[in-house]
Specification:
Layout lengths: L20 E7 L10 E6 L4 E6 L5 E4 L5 E9 L11 E5 L5 E7 L18
Parallel strand pairs: 1-7
Antiparallel strand pairs: 1-4, 2-3, 2-5, 5-6
């Protein structure tokens, strides 16, 4: 900025809002939300940023992040779900929230029924 005698000068500074990261977790078959899933959020350089856990509606929020690239991966899932396959990379931009969606399948169940055949008496 340059100032001159007998003149008014104005400097306008615009702040940018840091982005929020929102992670949603659902059952892959029913679409129902899954709570208590723990996610690890890492920055692109590999350092751990934070761990977040989904609430009763399958949502976890990490607020006030610096713009940049982040990796989101599942750290733990409750029974009866299987871990999701791959971590997801996201790019966060100032003044914008970003949502990420993960789905889990339940572990398969195997039921074996043994049926005894009744034989006539001898």
């Amino acid at each position: 900025m340059e100032l001159f005698p007998s003149q008014t000068s104005t400097l306008t500074i615009e702040n940018q809002k840091r982005p929020n990261l929102i992670v949603y977790k659902k059952d892959a078959d029913t679409g129902d939300p899954i709570s208590n899933i723990v996610f690890l959020v890492k920055a692109a350089d590999g350092h751990s940023v934070d761990e977040i856990k989904t609430d009763s509606i399958g949502k976890a929020v990490l607020s006030n992040l610096l713009p940049g690239v982040y990796e989101i991966s599942e750290k733990s899932v409750p029974t009866p779900w299987l871990m999701d396959a791959e971590p997801q990379l996201v790019t966060l931009y100032a003044n914008r929230e970003h949502s990420v969606y993960f789905e889990n399948h339940k572990k398969p169940i195997l039921t074996i029924n043994k049926v005894a055949e009744l034989l006539p008496p001898r």
